Amino acid sequence: MKIKLGIITPETHMDYFRAIEEEMRSICQFRFLTISSFRETKDVYLNNLGSVDGFVVSGRLLYESIDKECLDAKIPTHILQDNENLLYRELFRLLVTEPELDISRIYVDYAYIIDSFSEFQKYLTHEGKPIDSDDLFERVETMLENHITLWEEKKTDLSITAFGHFVPELKKHGVRYILIRPTLENVKETIREIINEITILKLKNQRAVVACLSTETAYPPTKEQLHELKELVGGFLRNVNLADTAQISEGFVRLYTTYGNFMKITSDAHNCTLLEYLEECVSHKVKVGWGSGHEYYQANENATKAHRQAKAFTGSCSFFINEDQKVIGPMRSINVIQFSEQGDPEIIALAKSIGINNINLQKIMSYAEIMRTNKLSSEDVSQCLSITIRGANRILNKIEEKNYARTVFEKREAGKGRPQKYYELLFLDSEGSNLEG
């Protein structure tokens, strides 16, 4: 599928983009969004946000005319940068070709946005209104007014502008002008850069993602209960304009989608709206495990692991495990827990001292923080690491042997039954957080 680029530009730059359009037709489709005023830029951007993969904007000030709160971080926007060397080159050309031209009678609006050009401004005209307003639109409109007024009052012999949308007005008033534009090669480079960025984002967003869902009930779910959950998941997908790919598999409801859709559903892996939707529809606790992978089998495996993380957590929750075994969750809290292959140097040193794998120690510590306790059972560690009870006991016994844990017996929940054996991890506080120092 071709990349769709929105080109926000004045008409004066269109010849450049037309030339490039033919060259890049096989990989990119241009959507030309011409503007005649800075004030149009925001609306043009917002009106086309959902129909393009990225934007190229002709100039920094044009980009700045879009309110920052309106910019979508997920849609790349590249700017044709104002190149001060082009201004220097044009002034040098004028000095050589028109030695009789009085440089103090040239009005250069471009100079006001180039910091390094300030030392040369003393040679240019100081006539006209000062460009000192905090309002961008007022500054731009003052520049245009100065071009026209100074020319009509015969105080200038030439105007140099960087703003293509000034050209129609300058022509209308007979102003002699030179338009500074980026080079064709600079435009091509900007287009190539944004195409590369969008291509990478598209590849990333097509990674396979699977969600493994269940409700927490006293007994294994019946076929009717699974079917009801599947219908609810399908209803959610339709509400957010996504294809219904929910299926019943191995006693769970599984949802098959892409990484891009997963990020939409979970607000960039921070808050799972699917979980919120299901909580309003069912009376039981909801457990959602998301997994991503380069292939669906890997995503499915990671979703099952993430569901185990969700099942171990108290209350309804949603966890995510990616292809690098990075865990994120629960995706409905301010401080979403994450752990990965690269650990903190102190944790790495602690794992080495105990004699266990650094990744396993990170997972145990993150699990403890999620559970808000430093007392974990063999079953907890077994679920956390996806290993057998025997393997979990082996790890916990190592920690105890190195005097980083002690055995305690207590009831986690009120009720009948004997106290259960837990290992109190001494490098964590009672809430499961890592002790400083």
In brief:
It is built from 15 helices and 17 strands. It has 437 residues and is α/β, with parallel strands linked by helices.
Q: State the assembly state of the protein chains.
A: single chain
Q: What is the 3D form?
A: elongated
Average pLDDT rating? 87
Q: Please give the count of helices.
A: 15
CATH architecture grouping of the largest domain: 2-Layer Sandwich
**Overall strand count:** 17
User: What structural category do the secondary elements indicate?
Assistant: alpha/beta
Distance between the termini: 53 Å
Helix percent reads 40-55%
Number of domains: 4
Q: State the CATH class of the largest domain.
A: Alpha Beta
Strand arrangement in the largest pleated sheet: 9-10-8-11-12-13-14
Q: Which runs of at least 5 residues are low in confidence (pLDDT < 50)?
A: none
CATH domain fold name of the largest domain? Alpha-Beta Plaits
Largest sheet: 7 strands, mixed
Radius of gyration: 31 Å
Indicate the proportion of strand residues. 15-25%
What's the SSE blueprint?
Elements: E1 3-9, H1 14-23, E2 28-34, H2 41-48, E3 54-57, H3 60-64, E4 77-79, H4 84-97, E5 106-108, H5 136-152, E6 158-161, H6 167-172, E7 177-179, H7 184-205, E8 208-216, H8 223-239, E9 246-249, E10 252-258, H9 259-265, H10 273-281, E11 285-293, H11 296-312, E12 317-321, E13 327-329, E14 337-339, H12 345-354, H13 358-371, E15 375-376, H14 378-385, H15 389-401, E16 405-410, E17 420-425
Parallel strand pairs: 1-2, 1-3, 3-4, 5-6, 6-7, 11-12
Antiparallel strand pairs: 8-10, 8-11, 9-10, 12-13, 13-14, 15-17, 16-17
Helix pairs in contact: 8-10, 13-14, 14-15
